[in-house]
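Structure first, sequence second, as always.
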């Protein structure tokens, strides 16, 4: 008997497709003109449980990619005929396969070569001298990213069919993004982390992370891609992938926030459509009890001192991609026991009320000060609740992300 509910039918069909896809192992295409290297990589990928396809040159690899649509392509840089960078350019120029994940292999991983590869369409790089652990980690990261991209592409397809299904999938994608965020609590001895992420209905480009960088240091960032929707989220995911600690050490050679933003600015120029990033990057040194930070067009960073003073930290700077020669400088400030560092997106203070009046930074700062006697997580919840109350409606028109770090007394 046929269902009388078209939306239920559509939902059932989507669920069935996803269930079938989930049962099939991811597919990895290996493109390398060296048969020995290709065979060795294929054996390693098969041991990881993935389906493997092989191609001995760039042109046949491109044809296989178009026909089979693998989850990840592992591509050699140096090949006769169609080399790796040219392969990437052809993929990015084809709307049918333009979102394919490409992991480029190279024996020469100088920053200049990495910059060229990224500019011509590679998503990540793998040194031919890499350890077994790094090879496995990068392949798994590429598969995870491909999974997210394919899910977002499913969302885009459903937009043309049913707005109701789109809303469900966007919320699912937002939950997935939230699942990638750092775990709250004591990240290291004496340092507490709390954060809140409230995505808007239209999937946006806010992402953040907190990570160890040495025994006595913590790195953290909050980035925002211009625009909204799937494209913005994908661009944020791409930048977040580059901001992994191993990449920072290899291609920047430092945890210094200014040096990191200077290199990222060079590698991620403004797109032809005028899309760009804003970001705040900080490093907490527990030994010196200081915070070093740098910003690129992002004003969402402040310190609430244990004395009760609230200090805004963001100097005026250009967003990433506006000027490829821009040099970003780190600024240092004390961070003592009892102080709280906040990173936040503009969605928290630019929320309008029914009269289109913005909540604004002054009201945001006042809310932080009023919540000073609460726990760190309680303070974040209180501030976000006040912003929501100001708007007078459910949800936020833009993504809201707030990260708090407290140095315990």
């Amino acid at each position: 008997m046929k269902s009388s509910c078209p939306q239920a039918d559509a939902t059932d069909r989507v669920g069935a497709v996803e269930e079938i896809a989930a049962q099939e192992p991811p597919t990895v295409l290996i493109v390398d003109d060296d048969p020995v290297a290709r065979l060795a990589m294929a054996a390693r990928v098969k041991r990881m449980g993935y389906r493997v396809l092989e191609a001995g040159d760039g042109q046949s690899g491109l044809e296989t990619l178009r026909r089979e649509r693998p989850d990840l392509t592992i591509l050699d840089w140096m090949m006769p005929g169609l080399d790796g960078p040219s392969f990437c350019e052809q993929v990015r120029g084809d709307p049918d396969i333009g979102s394919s994940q490409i992991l480029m292999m190279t024996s020469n991983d100088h920053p200049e070569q990495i910059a060229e590869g990224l500019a011509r369409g590679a998503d990540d790089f793998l040194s031919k001298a890499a350890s077994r652990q790094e090879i496995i980690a990068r392949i798994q990261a590429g598969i995870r990213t491909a999974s997210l991209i394919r899910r977002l592409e499913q969302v885009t397809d459903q937009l043309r069919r049913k707005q109701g299904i789109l809303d469900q999938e966007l919320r699912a994608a937002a939950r997935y993004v939230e699942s990638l965020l750092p775990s709250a609590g004591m990240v290291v001895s004496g340092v507490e982390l709390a954060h809140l992420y409230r995505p808007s209905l239209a999937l946006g480009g806010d992402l953040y992370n907190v990570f160890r960088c040495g025994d006595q240091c913590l790195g953290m960032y909050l980035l925002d891609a211009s625009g909204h929707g799937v494209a913005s989220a994908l661009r944020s995911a791409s930048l977040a992938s580059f901001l992994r600690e191993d990449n920072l050490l290899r291609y920047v050679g430092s945890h210094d926030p200014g040096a990191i933003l200077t290199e990222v600015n060079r590698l991620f120029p403004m797109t032809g459509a005028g899309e760009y990033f804003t970001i705040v990057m900080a490093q907490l040194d527990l030994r010196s009890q200081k915070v070093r930070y740098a910003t690129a067009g992002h004003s969402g960073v402040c310190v609430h001192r244990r004395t009760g003073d609230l200090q805004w930290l963001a100097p005026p700077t250009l967003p990433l991609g506006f000027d490829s020669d821009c040099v970003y400088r780190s600024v240092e400030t004390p961070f003592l026991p009892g102080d709280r560092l906040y990173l936040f997106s503009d969605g928290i203070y630019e929320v309008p009320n029914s009269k289109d009046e913005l909540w604004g930074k002054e009201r945001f700062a006042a809310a932080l000060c009023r919540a000073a006697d609460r726990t760190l997580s309680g303070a974040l919840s209180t501030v976000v609740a006040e912003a929501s109350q100001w708007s007078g409606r459910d949800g936020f028109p833009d993504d809201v992300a707030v990260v708090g770090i407290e140095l315990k007394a």
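Margin note: The radius of gyration is 23 Å.
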